[in-house]
Write a structure and sequence with these properties.
Number of helices: 4
Oligomer: single chain
Number of strands: 18
Mean pLDDT: 93
Low-confidence stretches: none
Helix content: 10-25%
Amino acid sequence: DDAASFLEEQMKLNLACRGWLETAYYFLGSDYRGGGPTSYTLSYMAQMGGWAVSDYALYFARDPLTYLRLGYASYLSSWALLNSGTAESNYGYWYPGQNNDGGAGGGFEPRPWGRAWLGDKEMGRGSWWYSGEIDLGYSGALRSAATIVVDDPIFGLFAYGGDVSREKNFTQVIPKDGLRARFHIVRGTQRIHLLLDRDGFAKDKPVSFDDALTTIRFTLENRASGKHDAIVRITGLPAGEYQATVQNQPTQKLTVRTGAQEQIPIPVDASGATVAIIRVSAATHR
């Protein structure tokens, strides 16, 4: 009870110092300081705190979609500080030049003109010229990166970090969150969590599932040099008996119980692995 109470209190405090009313990219999802939107934004705490908001939405919130909108905005927020581009764009918007390609600011000055706190240097609206602690923020972002499929009351069927389409009674989602290692489905009371301990979902290949969640299909890409087993962790499937197949060959039978996490070893060869998890019979009891 104490832990649950602390969780709820912490989330209230997280939201109290996070931009969610104003939708400018340097406000929405950002951490706020004492000056609110008049002080610098997009610091490392934007994405680290956003990781907590997303985690709360996926695993604890009674109303997850409200938190997912904000948490994913936080995940995206501080990537705006990156200075990167092509030769045609002169390697970046904030600080052009090849020597600055791949650099990142440690915060964002939201005012048309103000002073950055390090060195008290005046600057206009934009990314700081030094990185500060933004590497901590990007560490938080990498831990929250995921493709999340939702049935949103405002936006309908939508995939955060992915491209979604429908074909008959199947939903197909191509993960594009950057890591392609975490996949979640949030629909009503359903929350499916599909997590990879290594490798990743294959680039430009869909993760597909039917409306009843009795069939899930996906392709893994091999991110190592040789053959190995990858562990797929999946939680939230409807209770019942399941058959896992790899390259259309049966590999493991599963007895899924409500709320339990299943760990499935998947043999991955040099070309990857095509995986299906199919329910063969429904549970007769919980």
